[in-house]
């Protein structure tokens, strides 16, 4: 059932479509606001609101935009998770290359495919461990979330990891501010998980 992004109350419908280009947003009976204003917004506005940690945007994405199947993760979210893992591999590889550039180590002298698969395995292990730890914490605290919702919320709210590409593009020798991006991602994760309530 669709959900109001402002108060979290269930609504019958998010909009009424009169013609192809003519829709009218539904007002929520509980809070008298538009049930989901993000239906009319483009992706840039949604991305900016995600950066601003607005809970309404996470409700829109997780409760109204993604199909609510009982089990599993939606295919688009799965593809985004794979993209995040591959991006993390690239960032870790870049860090290792810059760190070990001045050092003569056995890791750098290994073949490229060995380096890539080693870092890929490490990133997959980190990804799975983080998700399992959060899911166990949610279950331990007896919060009433579906576990696939927890995973999708964590994946979508980890979009901030892609901000590190700016540091690579602008040729920073060290990723000094990557800790700041990690804090942004963690805050986004918390906001996405609290956005359901």
TrEMBL record:
Organism (species): Syncephalastrum racemosum
Keywords assigned: Endoplasmic reticulum, Golgi apparatus, Lipid metabolism, Lipid transport, Membrane, Sphingolipid metabolism, Transmembrane, Transmembrane helix, Transport
InterPro entries xrefs: Arv1
Membrane topology type: Multi-pass membrane protein
Origin superkingdom: Eukaryota
Main location: endoplasmic reticulum
Protein name per UniProt: Protein ARV
Family, similarity comment: Belongs to the ARV1 family.
Keyword check for Transmembrane: yes
Function, as annotated: Regulates also the sphingolipid metabolism.
GO CC terms in record: cortical endoplasmic reticulum; endoplasmic reticulum membrane; Golgi membrane
Residue spans crossing the bilayer: 80-96, 116-138, 150-170
GO BP terms in the entry: intracellular sterol transport; regulation of plasma membrane sterol distribution; sphingolipid metabolic process; sterol metabolic process
Subcellular location: Endoplasmic reticulum membrane; Golgi apparatus membrane
């Amino acid at each position: 059932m669709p959900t109001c992004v402002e108060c979290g109350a269930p609504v019958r419908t998010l909009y009424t479509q009169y013609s192809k280009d003519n829709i009218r947003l539904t007002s929520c009976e509980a809070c008298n606001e538009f049930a989901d204003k993000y239906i009319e917004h483009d992706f840039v506005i949604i991305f900016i609101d995600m950066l601003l940690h607005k809970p309404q945007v996470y409700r829109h994405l997780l409760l109204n935009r993604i199909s609510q199947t009982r089990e599993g993760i939606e295919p688009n979210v799965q593809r985004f998770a794979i993209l995040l893992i591959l991006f993390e591999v690239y960032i870790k590889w870049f860090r290792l290359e810059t760190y070990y550039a001045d050092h003569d180590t056995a890791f750098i002298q290994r073949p490229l495919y060995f380096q890539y698969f080693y870092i890929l395995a490490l990133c997959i292990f980190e990804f799975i461990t983080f998700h399992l730890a959060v899911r166990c914490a949610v279950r331990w605290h007896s919060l009433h979330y579906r576990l696939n919702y927890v995973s999708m919320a964590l994946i979508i709210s980890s979009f901030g990891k892609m901000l590190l590409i700016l540091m690579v593009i602008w040729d920073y020798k060290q990723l000094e501010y990557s800790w700041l991006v990690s804090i942004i991602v963690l805050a986004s994760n918390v906001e996405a998980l609290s956005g359901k309530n």
